[in-house]
Amino acid sequence: MTVATRTSATTAPAASTTAARAAPRPAWHRHLPSYLFLAPYATAFTGFIVVPFCVAMVLAFLQLDLASQSSPRFVGLGNFREALTDPRFWLAVRATMSFVVLAVPATLATSLLLALGLHAMTSGRDAVRAILFLPGMFNVAVAAILWQWFYNGEFGLFNFTLRRLGLDPVPWLSSRWLAMPSVVLMSVWWTIGGATVVLLAGLQQIPAQLWEAAAIDGASRWQSFRYVTLPMLKPVLMFVAVMNTIGAFQVFGQPFLLTRGGPELATRGVVQYIYETAFNNYRLGYGAAMSWLLFAIIGIFSLVQYRLLRRAAE
Questions:
Q1: pLDDT tens column, 222-255
Q2: CA neighbours within 13 Å on the CB side: how many for 55?
Q3: Domain chopping of the chain, boundaries
Q4: DSSP class of residue 134?
Q5: Third-level CATH fold of 88-270+289-313
Q6: In DSSP terms, which residues pair with 65 in a beta bridge?
Q7: What radius of gyration, in Å, describes the C-alpha atoms of the chain?
Q8: How far lies 103's CA from each of 156, 186, 263, 297, 304, in Å?
Q9: Helix or strand (DSSP H, E) at 305
Q10: Continuous H helices in 134-229
Q11: What are the tens digits of pLDDT across the range 61-89?
């Protein structure tokens, strides 16, 4: 009895130690490496997205004028009412809508044609894809300076070419009717590479057997594109269309650097008007309210576009 008791007493601590070692670690301890990897991005996201988001939400309901000595005061929806009755805000909305209507379809159509051409190439595809993607690597300031030289009325490349052809020079950036299409042309050139690469990746994911079956059935190239390529590519087209629409509503650098919003405010978009209101006129509350209105416009248009494209895909 004594020996058995001593044996059980000796083995009991060892069994408890083994059980303690085999106990699972807490969930946060197991996922600690993942949290550490996410920490840099989470910090940047919080500092540059979440905090400004919350600050803008508060400022939108305040009358905060840094050029005035009066202290900030709560005005409720006063800034939103002022924006909805501000003719300059609606001129900016009109200019932004003009850019969206011109730039998004042009980008989608051109990038789709380029992607189809690249997909049909048997050699040199990587080199051409790199050339197409190269403009997107430029800073917007570099691209704008380059296109300012293209559009220059006296010694610009475009007007020089027109003169050599015996044609009259064109006021690309000084004409109210040509300024926005000129900005759109520069924007399409600058952003076409990214959309083309995404669509090309979508084309490469389509099984080749589908095109082979269509060819065996006697389908023409147009029929193969309409009934095989386009339906299979619609999810990627939907993504490119929505992302380009969101980006087009936020246009700022191209018109600001090319035309400064002129002539006659024809190219001054909402983001530029917000910038001028908040940082030139120091009306931070009113600028924040207009930014929230722009956020609502982008959300509505993106949702409508997504539902239409999804319904077409079904």
A1: 888 888 888 899 889 988 998 999 999 999 999 9
A2: 10
A3: 88-270+289-313
A4: G
A5: MetI-like fold (1.10.3720)
A6: 283
A7: 29
A8: 23, 10, 19, 17, 18
A9: helix 284-313
A10: 140-151, 157-164, 179-204, 208-216, 221-224
A11: 998 888 777 778 888 899 999 999 999 99
